Amino acid sequence: MTQFRKWVFLGSTLFFVIVATTFASLGKIKGETLALIEVEKRFGSENFEESAFRTGQIEKRASMAASLIKNKKKYIGLESWRIRDLLGTYSGHYFSEKYATFFIYRGKNRSDDSWQLLFIIDKQSKVADIVVHKNCCY
Fold this sequence. Notes:
Elements: H1 2-25, E1 33-34, H2 36-43, H3 50-55, H4 58-70, H5 80-87, E2 100-105, E3 114-121, E4 127-135
Antiparallel strand pairs: 1-4, 2-3, 3-4
């Protein structure tokens, strides 16, 4: 009977660790992000305009990042494919091509920070949030 209890204890402990890890990782963004006030300090706060963003260079997109985040309600709940139609070709990367990402600052070399607008996508492939995220590799 003691051996059975050990197996039950080990099994329930493993189950608890798996469940706790799963719940802890839900809704978390991997990597570093910037608070809105930091986005404004670094990149400015020009009013966001879809057409200017879609056709703009990286500096133009950066200057509108804070305004986009302040007014993100317009994009929350949209299907992810709509972001490309509205804002243009993605330029960054976040784990998968399904995430809309747009560089707003590219480091001069691999040791410099690069930053991107990241549209977080939920399980229904809809926009759940928009953040400025540190891109690890560009």
